[in-house]
Amino acid sequence: MRRGLALLLAAALLAPALLAPVAAWAVLPSEKLADPALEARARAISEEIRCVVCQNESVDASDADIAHDLRVLIRERLKAGDSDQQVKDYLVARYGDYVLLKPPFASYTLVLWLGPVAVLLLGGLGAAVFLRSQRRRGGPAAVAPLSPEEVARVAELTGRQGEAPEGGVAHGGAAQGGGAAR
Amino acid sequence: MALRVLLGALPLAIFLAAAAFFLWGLNPQRDPSEIPSMLIGKEAPAFELGPIPGADRPGLATADLKGHGVTLVNIFASWCIPCRAEHGVLSKLAGDGVRLVGIDYKDKPADVLKYLGELGNPYERLGADTAGRAGIDWGISGVPETFVVDDKGRVVYRHVGPIAPNQVDDEILPALEQAAK
């Protein structure tokens, strides 16, 4: 039982180490272009192209067959003299914006791009309205100071009869002055 | 006062908006993994595929999709299990007089000949897409995928995955009718 657990633990610890190199090296040496500048462009493009079967993995990182095909295709287009944008347009013409991991800023993606900003603004507006109304009511600073009876009760509860109240109680006492000053 | 009413109604409005969104998201008919095709309403992509050696069918090119009436273009492979599952459905459609052509995706001639020999060959034309490049031109993410193309060579409908028998009446036949208009 204990041995099984140890084995399981070892497997769990080793698994990422075994899987990581596979994920990082989806680009096969045979796919690479001889020209390092062109290869760097191909890598940059394929990092932004979605593997259409894996949903949320780039073509650069995916081990899927179609990802391999798309990597080779991107390199072919680059070798044929396409610009980065032309390569992307070529893929978008076939697979739509879906193939881009970073969606374009367009009329139909306004909610996607501006939604978070709108929510943040709405939240800020709500907070501002709330704080303003608090202040108009006098705010938390205007909490009524403790009456002498309450001070005595607090002293009784804390078991320090006759002593000057400290800590939270002292703050209440100080608020008396502060409250009056306002 | 008006502002106060507006603020009071805000939580309700936010709730209703969120509820509508969740209702849309939870709809069992909605498939979040579905990828919209770029081809709907457009001409079929330019491609030209040679025949499968020994299959006794001519190859397939874009020109073969124009002026031949409504065509069902099925992209399949012998190594694809779901293709095997939909083969009977396709054979029945072809038997009912639907023009069916096939693109054999990333396959070996010997394998696909065995596949067709075993299950029958309902395809009028068969293109061998050995490199899988025509598949990319059609924007497929896997096999099988089936497209309905009208007489003018325009793509009307795309079906991802195997066609289940109940989907013939629900999806394929209406798409064929629409293409025939």
Automatic annotation (TrEMBL), chain A:
The keyword Transferase does not apply. It comes from the Bacteria. Residues 1-26 form the signal peptide. Residues 169-182 have a biased composition (Gly residues). Residues 158-182 are annotated as: Disordered. Keywords: Cytochrome c-type biogenesis, Heme, Iron, Membrane, Metal-binding, Signal, Transmembrane, Transmembrane helix. The keyword Nucleus does not apply. GO terms for molecular function: metal ion binding. Pfam families: CcmH (PF03918). One of its GO terms (biological process) is cytochrome complex assembly. One of its GO terms (cellular component) is plasma membrane. InterPro entries: C-type_cytochrome_biogenesis (IPR051263), CcmH/CycL/Ccl2/NrfF_N (IPR005616), CcmH/CycL/NrfF/Ccl2_sf (IPR038297). The chain crosses the membrane at residues 110-131. Gene3D superfamilies: Cytochrome C biogenesis protein. Residues 17-157 form the CcmH/CycL/Ccl2/NrfF N-terminal domain. Belongs to the CcmH/CycL/Ccl2/NrfF family. Possible subunit of a heme lyase. This is Cytochrome c-type biogenesis protein. The lineage of its organism: Bacteria, Pseudomonadati, Pseudomonadota, Alphaproteobacteria, Rhodospirillales.
UniProtKB/TrEMBL annotation, chain B:
Gene3D superfamilies: Glutaredoxin. Residues 38-181 form the Thioredoxin domain. Its main location: other. GO terms for biological process: cytochrome complex assembly. InterPro entries: Periplasmic_diS_OxRdtase_DsbE (IPR004799), Redoxin (IPR013740), Thioredoxin-like_sf (IPR036249), Thioredoxin_domain (IPR013766), Thioredoxin_ResA/DsbE_sf (IPR050553). Keywords: Cytochrome c-type biogenesis, Disulfide bond, Redox-active center. SUPFAM superfamilies: Thioredoxin-like. It comes from the Bacteria. GO terms for molecular function: disulfide oxidoreductase activity. One of its GO terms (cellular component) is outer membrane-bounded periplasmic space. It is found in: Cell envelope. Belongs to the thioredoxin family. DsbE subfamily. This is Cytochrome c biogenesis protein CcmG, thiol:disulfide interchange protein DsbE. It comes from Tistlia consotensis USBA 355.
